[in-house]
Amino acid sequence: xxxxxxxxxxxxxxxxxxxxxxxxxxxxxxxxxxxxxxxxxxxxxxxxxxxxxxxxxxxxxxxxxxxxxxxxxxxxxxxxxxxxxxxxxxxxxxxxxxxxxxxxxxxxxxxxxxxxxxxxxxxxxxxxxxxxxxxxxxxxxxxxxxxxxxxxxxxxxxxxxxxxxxxxxxxxxxxxxxxxxxxxxxxxxxxxxxxxxxxxxxxxxxxxxxxxxxxxxxxxxxxxxxxxxxxxxxxxxxxxxxxxxxxxx
Length: 249
Fold this sequence. Notes:
33% of the residues lie in helices and 22% in strands. It has helices at 19-27, 44-48, 65-77, 93-98, 117-125, 143-150, 184-193, 209-217, 234-247, and strands spanning 5-8, 30-33, 37-41, 59-62, 87-90, 109-112, 132-137, 155-165, 178-181, 203-207, 224-226. The longest helix is centred in the C-terminal third of the chain and has 14 residues, at 234-247.
């Protein structure tokens, strides 16, 4: 089948440059963006019910910008003064640099990996004596706590925000040739908004193994899957699929 329209379940990229825009121009596609999930912070009262005292921790593991925002929000709401001595272990440089929104970067002890929790292990093992706090969402991937436990890191999870389905009711009568998902939460949102959803000829693309598994578990057909050796990104996988469909014309 020919692909003309694609809905990407993420916010529209900022600025004028994006592989999605290049893809749309190259193959004359209409690519729309719409987040299927959104993040909501928990209340200070709900946080207190977890019986976690920030004062007990000497280091914090930041896995996302959301984690940073909600850590400092809860700190303010619970009147916890973040000490200058607190160490920050960030999953990537981009996340580490985001700390500048809240702290004087050059005056803090900040460590970061390339993009995964494994990248942080060398730094964390050099600071084995720390008591780590892991600010997280209600749907934290198992990989992160499992890796920390495997390396005997002393840590505590603090659920500070949750992922909820966006309201997509305005899309009820809108049809796209392809839907692109990046998390199991996106699939859950699809069925929460449209319980009677039938895939029929709609193509489904998924990024990452957990998202692909969620597609299959919900009895949907997985048409495009990234990353792959020949398609490290979602846009590369979609382009490969579009090329193949054009050959069959």
